[in-house]
Amino acid sequence: MPVIRILGIDPGLRNMGWGVIDTEGSKLSFVACGSIHSVGEDALSERLRQLYVGLQAVIEAHRPGEAAVEETFVNRDPQGTLKLGQARGIALVVPALAGLTVAEYSANLVKKTVTGTGHAEKQQIGMMLKVLLPRSTAASADAADALAVAVTHAQHRASQALAARLGLKAS
Predict the structure, then answer these.
(1) Is 15 in contact with 142 (CB distance < 8 Å)?
(2) What is the DSSP letter of 121?
């Protein structure tokens, strides 16, 4: 089975988490993780540029074959939601421009895939990542969330491939 390198992205305007794993069949291996920070109170366009350049550098450094992005939820602050949506646009377009297929997963599905429950706390996700990726070094919640997105993609891409081989429609 070929090794597939997956980039998981947790979109954020101030901190965009990223995590890279390798998957070979059902075996998962930690590669790297971190956060891209947009600095200061600069204009929104400058902060988005910082995220764009930072994510481009991650892709160039780690050469993933696929990417996955966590979907965002709409909160009560329309301005905050709009800004987060723009950061999410960066998370979607940078991998696409690099030629990667980009999958999207809801936060509840990510939590359920990693912990077994769709309403898990961040601490539970971190603990399960230590089990699934013992060498992981996620120093922030954003990086851990991004690794969880990558793990989710690895699990779901495997079940989708199996369903395709069996001629079934994947859920």
Answers:
(1) yes
(2) -
Q: Is 61 left (phi over 0), alpha (psi -120 to 50) or beta?
A: alpha
Both tokens assigned to 83:
């800004």
Residue showing tokens 């109170």: 41
For the stretch 93-133, pLDDT in tens is 999 999 999 999 999 999 999 998 778 888 888 889 999 99
How many percent of the chain have pLDDT more than 70?
Answer: 91
- Going by the DSSP 8-state scheme, the letter that residue 50 receives in this structure is H
Residue 166 has pLDDT above 80, yes or no: no
* CA angle, 19 then 23 then 29, to 5°: 60
**Phi and psi for 33 in degrees, rounded to 5?**
-160, 165
Catalytic residue numbers read 10, 70, 142
The secondary structure of residue 24, as a DSSP letter, is E
Tokens of residue 10, six digits: 């947790």
Closest C-alpha among 144, 160, 111 to residue 12: 144
Burial of 69 (0-12, 13-18, 19+ CB in 10 A): buried
67, 9 contact by CB (below 8 A): yes
Q: At CA 51, angle to CA 45 and CA 52, rounded to 5?
A: 85
